[in-house]
Amino acid sequence: MAVPISPASPSDRILKQLERERREESEERATVWAFLWVLFAFKMATIGVIWYVAAGTGESLVMIAATTWYWLVIPIAAITGPLLVRWRMIKMRRRREELRQAEWREEPDILAMHDPRSPDLPGDRPRSRE
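RESULT FIELD:
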């Protein structure tokens, strides 16, 4: 006897479709990045070969720099972005720690001002015995 297969509910079908689209989008993004990095590596290798063949003269280096300077934007952006994020995170953690310490710090002048046993309270002068 065959067991009837229940059709998937509309919400199940929508969720499966959304998951499939998300997975495809992720794979497409990885493919694009792989292509861009291969293109960049090939360009840098080509520049290296041209410079080597030109015997590394100053003139060839100037010509290469003049014609390919914009390719340096890619590694600069790729390296600078994560470094800036890391630097900001370190700075924010340092600031958070300073605030945490300041919250619990006991400062002597403030403690003396609020200590009821302190004879130096403003407005509370010791009475003279006359």
